[in-house]
Amino acid sequence: MKSKPGLFISFEGGEGSGKSTQIRHLATWFREQGRDVVVTREPGGSPGAEEIRNLILTGDPGRWDAVTEALLMFASRRDHVERTIRPALAEGKVVLCDRFADSSVVYQGYGHGLGADYIRNLWKLAIGDFKPDLTVIFDLPLEVGLDRAGARFANVSAAEDRYERMGLAFHERIRDGYREIAETEKYRCVVIDASGDIESVGERVIAAVQGRIAGQGT
Ligand SMILES: Nc1ncnc2c1ncn2[C@@H]1O[C@H](COP(=O)(O)OP(=O)(O)OP(=O)(O)O)[C@@H](O)[C@H]1O
Ligand SMILES: [Mg+2]
Questions:
Q1: DSSP string covering 80-147, please?
Q2: pLDDT digits (tens, 9 = 90+) for 62-72
Q3: Is it the case that residue 141 has pLDDT exceeding 90?
Q4: Which residues approach ligand 1 with their CB closer than 6 A?
């Protein structure tokens, strides 16, 4: 029997939009279809990249200047792609990634004002044309997302909350950035309404994934 090709799906959206929750849900769904699934996240996803994650997500909001932060992101991303993602895809696995390069385009490009083109140039330098087969973008009113994220942080000790503390105008630019990416890269991206209960959002995600992978032998 011919083995299935690897499938790389990234999940994007603001803080608390439900990425981690829905990835767990979708991982179960894929496993029920008999697929091997790797769940991973950015920044991080390989031992070296997890070390860089700690530098990026903790500490003062102004700890890094925007360019340094973008370079740290792409350094960790290259390690993640080379050590974790590509090997898993080569083995025919489904890779579900909690944030990927679109997060850099949106957070450093739109949020911190470096510009999307600047970040796309770094993308090309660091990992060439490598990109997800499908990117699921969760769209949610800002207040709802920050409330959900806040509830989550109440339960953890060393909070990785640098981005949560950057203010509403920043998060508004994030939401607009994602919408623009989805508009210009329709073939790769699908926007999911992330409001409503976990089950309803989960059904939307599975419908979107099924729609996109139909006919791809998956
Ligand atoms: N549809 C939903 N309705 C209500 N609460 C939800 C829903 N989806 C997720 N949550 C809850 O909201 C919080 C944030 O969800 P989750 O951690 O999945 O979001 P996230 O996008 O991964 O956030 P972050 O960017 O901060 O990692 C969690 O406590 C989760 O249980
Ligand atoms: Mg999460």
A1: HIIIIIHHHHHTT-EEEEES-HHHHIIIIIIISSS-HHHHHHHHHHHHTT---SEEEEEE--HHHHHH
A2: 899 989 999 99
A3: no
A4: 13, 15-21, 148-149, 151-152, 196-198, 201
